[in-house]
Amino acid sequence: MAKQSSFTCSSCGAAHKKWSGRCDDCGAWNSIVEEAPLSAGPSKKSLGAQRGSAMILTDLSTEEPAPPRVKSGLDELDRVLGGGLVRASAILVGGDPGIGKSTLLLQATASFARAGLKCIYVSGEEASAQIRMRAQRLNLADAPVQLAAETNLRDIITTLDKERPDLVVIDSIQTMWADNVESAPGSVAQVRAACHELVTFAKRTGTSVVLVGHVTKEGQIAGPRVVEHMVDTVLYFEGERGHQFRILRAVKNRFGPADEIGVFEMTGEGLAQVTNPSALFLSERDKPAPGSVVFAGIEGTRPVLCELQALVAPSPHSQPRRTVVGWDGGRLAMILAVLEARCGIPFTGLDVYLNVAGGMRINEPAADLAVAAALLSAREDAPLPADIVVFGEISLSGALRPVGQTENRLKEAQKLGFTGAIAPMRSKLGSDAGLKIQQMSDLTAFVGEIFGAG
Ligand code: TYD
Ligand code: MG
Predict the structure, then answer these.
(1) What percent of the chain has pLDDT over 90?
(2) How many CB atoms are located within 10 Å of the residue 288 CB?
(3) Minimum-distance ligand to the CA of 98?
(4) Checking CA distances to 64, which of 35, 135, 262, 327 falls within 20 to 30 Å?
């Protein structure tokens, strides 16, 4: 058997033979830490389960009913979970410190408790009194949730085994400490061991386990990516510090669609659900402005409109800046290259800034055309009409490709008072769009039509 490497990336968990400043696997800097080598042999006893019994083998054809789900009543959360909480599932909720994970999970636990589940909230970061005070402020004090402030995993598993709750929240996985692993809490080995114990407990007893994981930039403690592969569902709670909007995004879900989002707003009374995110993301728009374009996007199963903003200015630097917030930097470079090569519109000597308003992150290639439109509008200092939405994928040849769920995008735009749309040729428009739709075959046609000769 290969010798256990003792250097591990605390961001992604990759094992390395020697220390280096940058992890080859995930690209994180300064994240590689030395771990005490695992001692060989079967001497380490697991904390919970008895081992050594025979496996139960079944056929593929064995009938399996759909997993029973319990809804919390918080629609934004239930949708991201794929329709509710699945029994015996392990869920990781990751996010930056201070983004609102504890707040979200306290609210969620209270909702599940009110829906009749037996819930335990274990905090390794706050004292029970602190959590009770927060619960009072959030008007959750009457919910039948049981609290514990504990970090010793052996004690936690022992208690859970006795209590057999339906749901347990562990806040956070990085504070947990398994006494059969010889390294500090927060280290890769501890976080992995704690996660393994808790996931095994979930599968063994039917309790659903929610693990909170802090995302770390410095690498002193292991990040949630270290355990992503061990759980059934991975949710990330995202948002910009300066904005009150928070987005709960499913990045992996064994029991539902990935890429589904739930939108929340951080208020004085905790997190409020945002049922119409399009209206929220567009609320700060007023007059038509150069560089501003509304993209009709799809997040999971739901259409979401959001505003893209671009700024293009002469650069004082020999190497002009390309700065992107909320969209992929590589994809921006590609669109700039296509504009230059296929439409003869250069961006040399110009700084380019692109921002998705409201702290939203877009991952869809369907936003290509909206990005191109924002860049051109900023470069030409020519605003687009304020009442149109734009979507479509751009290929390297400059051709526009139709994208999925066109009908849903158009419906949402119409609902929010838009009167027109620019879309690729051959888009499936559906029965009655009710919008004035300009369909274009390639980027050159788009430039000619919207910005004159370009
Ligand atoms: P918290 O849930 O403790 O974050 P995390 O667990 O991800 O570290 O949330 C912390 C922030 O949320 C804190 O800066 C204050 C803010 N907050 C509100 O604005 N309103 C509220 O009702 C609560 C409970 C927190
Ligand atoms: Mg917290």
Answers:
(1) 64
(2) 14
(3) 1
(4) 262
